[in-house]
Write a structure and sequence with these properties.
This protein has helices at residues 2-47, 50-60, 65-96, 98-101, 104-110, 112-120, 122-127, 131-152, 159-171, 174-180, 196-226, 229-249, 251-265, 269-296, 298-306, 314-320, 323-338, 344-369, 371-402, 406-420, 430-451, 455-472. By secondary structure, the protein is mainly α.
Length: 473
Amino acid sequence: MNAILTMSSFIFPLITFPYVSRILLPTGTGKVSFATSLISYFSMFAQLGIPTYGVRACAKVRDDREKLTRTAQELLIINLVMDVVSYVALAIALVCVPRLREDRALYVVVSFTIILTSIGMEWLYKALEQYTYITIRSIIFKFIALVAMFLLIHQQEDYVIYGAISIFAASASNIFNFINAHKYIDMKPVGNYDFKRHFKPVAVFFAMSCATTIYTHLDTVMLGFMTSDEDVGYYNAAVKIKSVLVSVVTSLGTVLLPRSSYYVESGQIDEFKRITRKALNFVFLVATPLMLYFILYAKQGIYFLSGSAYAGSIVPMQIIMPTLLFIGLTNILGIQMLVPLGRERVVLYSEIAGAVVDLVLNALLIPRFASSGAAIGTLAAEFVVLVVQFVALRKDVTSAFRKISYWKIALGLLLGTAASYWVAGLGLGNFLTLAISACLFFGVYGLLLLITKERMTIEIFNQFLAKLKRKKD
């Protein structure tokens, strides 16, 4: 189900962004990207790190409805109180900051994500591993948003509508989350709340969320204040492609977080280590070919998805692609290992280090290199986060890293590049170049892994054959 969910996240921007980017141009998409990044800071304060903490807290009491109800209601009440504080702060900012007053309507529309995220309680559904519900709900709303994009966006001034539809696609389904929650928890207030027990862990997760949000959105916000909406648009096109690919790389880690927490809580450490080892292997197998392919074919990827007006996105995209591997690994080390083990502070320290590096490099590089400078800052920040987390877990993960078949992956990448790189010189057009080169690159890469009997590739291949056999039977 999470694979299907990931594919829907893939397909939605693949269909809509080529259309939207050509109508709104870099300036229009840049305005929406800047607004989304800015509102993410207000949303960060409203959420207090509960989207991650809530998964762990609810997973621990998932077998006791009364305890689960009390925990979920306590976290929801904390969220709603913080929503009020965030909206007050946003209102003051819209009145006092000239840069924000220009597009006040856009910021108000995008700010609906704050309340919708809170009432959605997605952390509850993830803790209970309700991925079928999450997937179906998400696909339905993405499809509605897809139709709305083509019906309502026709000129460059429609960027506010684009912002509204983007929020609808991402968050409107949270209303149904709230309505559907009665299946898992009691909606009637239970009383005897103990908010204090959440304050300390929530504070740590909030600090983690602050650090993460700062260094993931700081580049866009600083670009918006220091350069122009057009530069933000160039950078947004590169980040849009990276974000789609990151969702593929991190899909396994997202699914395994509640399972990891459950194993740690029940003392099944061997099982915890086993799924961690698999997850790290998965990241290397998936992230490295995606990273290399989109460095080689950055020009065709940008032109196909966004149009020739986004030529300024090519270099930033090439610079930012290695973050696929860095983010994939830190998603496993941080979210799947350190958080279930109760070592959130290490994640916090790593993200603070990343945020500081990002802030310093952005301040130095954005004035001179604009979107490329922001990409360098993000790349360095993600690498620093990875190094800090790896050092903290080196005794636990060194053996897992040693079992990865690096030479098989490297050989597959080399042969995949050799088999596909000549396609770029044929002048076939962006779509055909991408389609043919991708088939050759990933086909040869996967075939090499099968021939050399890479462990996880063989396991996935055998599972696929077993499912086909069961369908035939």
